[in-house]
Specification:
- GO terms for molecular function: ATP binding.
- This is ABC transporter ATP-binding protein.
- Keywords: ATP-binding, Nucleotide-binding.
- The protein is about 40% helix and about 20% strand.
- It is of the alpha/beta class.
- A 6-stranded mixed β-sheet has the order 6-7-8-3-9-10, with helices on both faces.
- A hairpin with a 2-residue loop joins β9 and β10.
- The longest helix has about 35 residues.
- About 35% of the residues are buried.
Length: about 280
């Protein structure tokens, strides 16, 4: 996925062109194009199984067998230079249950900032991350005894340790109650506004679309729309993003059915045009 030498630099925090992932005999991502603007929250929305997690894994450089072009923060996805510049939070919290919140962060900070000379840098990063996710009152609690929402915030704190330029969050609010979801989204907006961090946040909950600056709507490995929530509603004459999404799905299904019907008609016409040879009689 390397750019050719001499190509003009890509614009946008993430730029994909012809991004394709094939798993077995199935195309999980089907030659998609999209751009994620810097310093904004882009929502990646679509039903479960549509390819959101595969796309995110491609962005952070952990997805195998990716073809096409994918530039992240001006570098090819997976470039070693990007490791300290990207924070990635998976669907399952990445924490050690037998360590406290503080101990978890101390451990990951030691990986990011190794050596005695960086001890103060580690301490500052840990305290800042704990404050960012509002877990100061639980800093010395075992991670295994936290609620699901609190564990998710510990994973987010780990991702924030290095003050990343890009945060990739795979369904971070799944299973959370409305209050916790609201608090996390408020945190996402503070991170984007105060630090200029780019966030790519996936969800299958359509009402979360309204909290994003920009949207990528996915279905069956394809991008149905790339727009702001306001323009998406306006272009589809819809009151909500969910209604706009369903309108786009119906339109895509109608096009696919029309194309399939045309293909069948063409095949039938081809059969009808073939000459019929009578069997030779002796």
């Amino acid at each position: 996925m390397m750019n050719k030498t001499g190509d003009a630099p890509a614009t946008g925090a993430i730029v994909a062109r012809g991004l394709t992932v094939v798993r077995g005999d199935r195309a999980v991502l089907r030659g998609i194009d999209f751009t994620v603007p810097p310093g904004r929250i882009t929502g990646l929305l679509g039903p479960s199984g549509c390819g959101k997690t595969t796309l995110m894994r491609a962005v952070v450089g952990t997805q195998a067998k990716v073809t096409g072009t994918l530039d992240v923060l001006g570098r090819p996805a997976g470039d070693a230079d990007l490791r300290s510049r990207i924070g990635y939070v998976t669907q399952d919290p990445s924490v050690y249950d037998d360590l406290t919140v503080h101990q978890n962060l101390d451990y990951f900070a030691a990986v990011l900032f190794p050596g005695r000379a960086r001890r103060e840098e580690r301490r500052t990063a840990v305290e800042r991350a704990i404050t960012d996710v509002d877990l100061a009152s639980h800093a010395h609690d075992l991670a295994g005894r936290l609620s699901g929402g609190q564990r998710s915030r510990v994973s987010l704190a780990v991702a924030l340790l290095g003050t990343p330029e890009l945060l990739v969050l795979d369904e971070p609010t799944v299973g959370l109650d409305p209050v916790l979801r609201r608090d996390l989204w408020n945190l996402f907006h503070r991170i984007a506004a105060d630090r200029g961090t780019t966030l790519l946040v996936s969800s299958h909950v359509m009402d979360e679309a309204e909290r994003c600056h920009r949207l990528l709507l996915m279905r069956e490995g394809e991008i149905l729309a790339e727009d702001t929530p306001e323009d998406l509603r306006r272009r589809n004459d819809a009151a909500t993003v969910e209604q706009a999404f369903l309108h786009l799905v119906d339109a895509a299904d109608a096009r696919a059915e029309e194309a399939d019907g045309a293909a069948r008609a063409s095949e039938a016409a081809g059969h009808a045009a073939r000459p019929v040879h009578e069997e030779h009689q002796p």
